[in-house]
Amino acid sequence: MGRAPCCDKANVKKGPWSPEEDAKLKEFIEKHGTGGNWIALPQKAGLRRCGKSCRLRWLNYLRPNIKHGEFSDEEDRIICTLYASIGSRWSIIASQLPGRTDNDIKNYWNTKLKKKLIGIIPSGQGKFSQPFPGNLQPPQTLHPHQFPLSGLSQLYNSFYSHAATNKSLTGPIEPISAPQSFLYCNNNNYNFPFFTSSQSSNCNYQGNQDQGLVDLQCNYPLRENMLMFGGNENSCSSSDGSCSQISYGGKDHVKQEEMGGFQGFMISNGLDGNHKFMLHCGKINQVDEDDHHHHHGDPLMSSFLDDHDQKANGVVLKNSELEYDLEEVKQLISSGGDSNNFLYNDENKTHEKGMYYF
DNA sequence: AAACCGTACAACCGCAGCCGG
DNA sequence: ACCGGCTGCGGTTGTACGGTT
């Protein structure tokens, strides 16, 4: 039978948008909004365009607060880190970069950043042996920018150390600071790349859209400091550009909620502006900035910490050996390999990966 | 000056998921 | 529960433009 076309293909214009079309679309949306129906919009606006095309044009180009032009080092860093952790989930990445669209970031990654990354890493560095070992290895003390993340994160870290050394980048090397929204995980069946867990868990999302609160019910006590993030401000590629979202769910199911949810989440979890956030793969515990050894009553983590109390800049972690041949990493990047598989193919889910704050 | 090539960006396409009827 | 319409997303393609030969 096949799917009905979203519009009359024969009757719609394709290709680049003219200034007149842009003006028409912009004027119409500013006056009437999208009306929640992109399909009908072009007709109402007097445009011979497909609704999808209108939507894309609006989201990627016409809507207010779109940032064009050079990406900053900070943006580079965020993109690298997030790509290393979640792969090509451009909309999620975009949600962390105010004013940037997923399309923008995707293009930027494909045309520049990827090459920058590949080009800057000398081959033969960091000879590693196996992807995602099941067994945890003795811990190492690491700086926050040297987290035992995934292979790509290693690459990223290498990238930044080299960049810093070569002064090709400026600015401090720091963890991503406080994204304003988060994706709390379900680390049971699915495996959203941020998260896999050795413990069986049953974490149900119970979004309360009326209250805008995210209410998670987990019978496995997820690390309180494990977070996954969505977006905020007007940086996302959501249909109306309102862009205040918190995301939750898994690889096959990522939902987004109003940002009020994150505010509630922040409050209910006692988070404030003093917390910082980092991506994580391995074992980790939250350490308050004023109490680096407080284990927050987490027996699992406490026992772990009894064995391996390691901390770096306020973060306690148990490292896992992540050994890759960087050439392989490069290859994966250049071959457009599935980063999710590459980075997160932890079939036994013996590892925890996530984003944490501290 | 013209042809060629590489790069960057805009736009399209198809799929998957959501949601309302 | 099912179905169809709509939206969002990510991959891919098209095109403009600048640099090089």
From TrEMBL:
Nucleotidyltransferase among keywords: no
Domain HTH myb-type: 9-62, 63-117
UniProt-annotated location(s): Nucleus
Classification via SMART domains: SANT
Keyword Heme: no
Myb-like domain segment(s): 9-62, 63-113
SUPFAM superfamilies per the UniProt record, alphabetical: Homeodomain-like
One cellular-component annotation, GO: nucleus
InterPro entries: Homeodomain-like_sf (IPR009057), Myb_dom (IPR017930), SANT/Myb (IPR001005)
Keywords: DNA-binding, Nucleus, Repeat, Transcription, Transcription regulation
CDD domains per record: SANT (cd00167)
Protein name: Transcription factor RAX2
Lineage per the UniProt record: Eukaryota, Viridiplantae, Streptophyta, Embryophyta, Tracheophyta
Designated gene of the protein: LOC105170215
